[in-house]
Amino acid sequence: MAIGMKVKKATKDHELDASKFFGAPTVPLAWDGDFDEDEIFLCQINLAEIAHLDGENRLPHTGYLYIFLHTNGGDYDLKADVRYFDGEPELAIDDFNLEVAGYETWSDAYLIEFYEVEDDEDCTRLLGVPSDWNYEQAPPKLLMQFDPLDSEMGIFNHLDGFLYFFFGEDEKDFESVTLAEEYS
Q1: What count of Cα atoms within 13 Å lies in the side-chain half-sphere of residue 81?
Q2: Burial grade of 160 (CB within 10 A; 0-12, 13-18, 19 or more)
């Protein structure tokens, strides 16, 4: 089974370390100043919230998983920057996405609710297999599938398909995660 991700717009008083898309990432203090000028915050996942849904133990069950994107000047050449921290984050970085031209409106936080879904469900989710995989070779191992039409966040509206975040050869090496766009 895979882990579905349903989002709802956060209120102003939400917990800053909650699992979410956008808003203010809450990161380890050691990461302060460790981001590139073209980098945007996509999501943070409190891994304790999904431990009961990850029966195969593919992800750590403590700490936080973060996905940032290098924009390289636009939506069409994005690169993944996936980070794991096994601890409690101490620093909320307000207005993270406001500093990157073209992404200023991606600052509202959307809280994530996790639930069990089929491995190939057409939705935003963790793990499973890519929904639109129609190639002869086996699909790479999927960390996350992002469906821009699956929510009201209003991001990546140009993409009628999915953003896939694939593991490298070692699923515990988050630095080797790659990003691919798949159009329906």
Answers
A1: 15
A2: exposed
Q: Which residues of 67-90 are buried (b: 16+ CB within 10 A; e: fewer)?
A: bbbbbeeebeebebbbbbbeeebe
* Positive or negative: CA dihedral 109, 75, 4, 66: negative
Placement of tokens 């992800």 in the chain: 59
pLDDT beyond 80 at 155 = yes
Residues 125-147 have pLDDT tens digits of 999 999 877 778 888 899 999 99
Helix ranges restricted to H, the chain: none
CA distances for 170 relative to 21, 100, 167, angstroms: 25, 31, 7
Q: Where are the domains of the chain?
A: 2-183
Residue 11 burial (CB count, 10 A)? 8
Q: pTM value?
A: 0.94
Question: 111: closest CA among 31, 26, 171?
Answer: 26
- 2-183 belongs to CATH 2.30.320.10: yes
Q: Do residues 182 and 122 touch, judged by C-beta distance below 8 A?
A: no
